[in-house]
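ZP: hey, is the nicotinamide-adenine-dinucleotide complex queued? I don't see it on the tracker
AM: it wasn't, my bad. submitting now with these inputs:
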Amino acid sequence: MSRFQRVAILGATGSIGESTLDVIARHPDRLGVYALSAHSRMDRLAEQAAASNAAVVVVPDTAARQRFLAAWPTGRAMPEIRVGAQALADTAADPACDTVMAAIVGAAGLPGALAAAQAGKRVLLANKEALVAAGALFMQAVRDNGAELLPIDSEHNAIFQCMPRGDRAGAPTEPARGVRRLLLTASGGPFRRHDPQDLHDVTPDQACKHPNWSMGRKISVDSATMLNKGLEVIEAHWLFAMPAERIEVLIHPQSVVHSLVEYDDGSVLAQLGQPDMRTPIAYGLGFPDRLASGVSPLDLAKAGCLEFDKPDLNRFPCLALAFDALRSGQGACIALNAANEVAVAAFLAGRLRYTWIPRVIAAALEWQQQRSSVTLDSLADVLALDAETRAYTGNLGLA
Ligand code: NAD
Ligand code: MG
């Protein structure tokens, strides 16, 4: 794909959305913004739409529409304003755009990401929760509709780059030939060395202080608990058709090696770079070409020693819970993700202790196991179990 690409960014005002706009602005000859969506921060959405000449913006409701109108600079031609969840999915499938950046946080991003896959778009997938909640459905939609799926999560983007040629695009149904294992690196977050006993009084700001990456608050908390890595194991399972026992997590505090692929002959290929999401985003936007991203070169001499270690599952119970969920099946993965979203939101709002996050998730997994199994063949099925889990989890452990 080297012709001009018109891009829709779902979740434009977030950390990934901002980085995507930054990369697009560096390549006016081959990339342009078609549509931008945001859930809150209408003033920022208006600035972004004005600066990028977006043709369309998508806002959640009429109150947000009013705030967008109030923030719009006088004298500028107004973009078309679309309202509501259906408009968001319709925009992801809009024939006027070629590429969709799925950068909404949480399972809320699933309908838009799925609509983009069903419309056969180039899908740049940052929204890992979409794959956790609906991996089989999403990958089938990619296959059935000839969509082009490019992982943006830095680890999966690294693995994608290290995969054998020819196995790179699309949605594989079996592991790539010659690949033995996927090695996912993890920084270990801000509490890597803390005694688990000391985490009782952790505040949201402490949990969000990631040592290497600057990200939205939900994924920052997930990185601290390492549930983020658990979600990424599930994400890797779907993206690369890899069974759980062939995916290993390695603690790598420097965040220079973004992940690795181990081959049958003993070769291990890695992708390295600065911890800056503009690299994987530029890779996805440019594929198969390489685009300048604004990321400074990696100075390996300055990076110094690169360390690798096995994660301690007692210290990071959320990682073990995610492996359990993956082995257990789709229903458990939906429950894991939904319970975590509820727990992290409560923690960020000061209503739940940090140490309760794994307890809430474990309770939701137990609850899910005891229910009679339900079919999960459609988006509606997935969203129904997601909503039920949220209802069950809502009041667990609240302060
Ligand atoms: P963020 O919180 O900074 O931004 C989230 C965006 O989604 C915002 O634009 C917000 O308006 C929108 N949004 C939030 N709730 C919504 C809802 N209910 N409906 C519609 N839109 C909604 O998040 P982020 O850090 O940019 O992460 C976005 C996604 O990318 C997440 O799935 C995250 O796991 C993934 N990701 C992020 C990074 C990173 O470096 N930030 C790295 C890898 C993967
Ligand atoms: Mg990641």
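AM: back. Residues 11-17, 38-40, 103-105, 108, 126-129, 153, 213, 215-216, 218-219, 277 surround nicotinamide-adenine-dinucleotide (ligand 1) (CB under 6 Å).
ZP: great, adding it to the tracker
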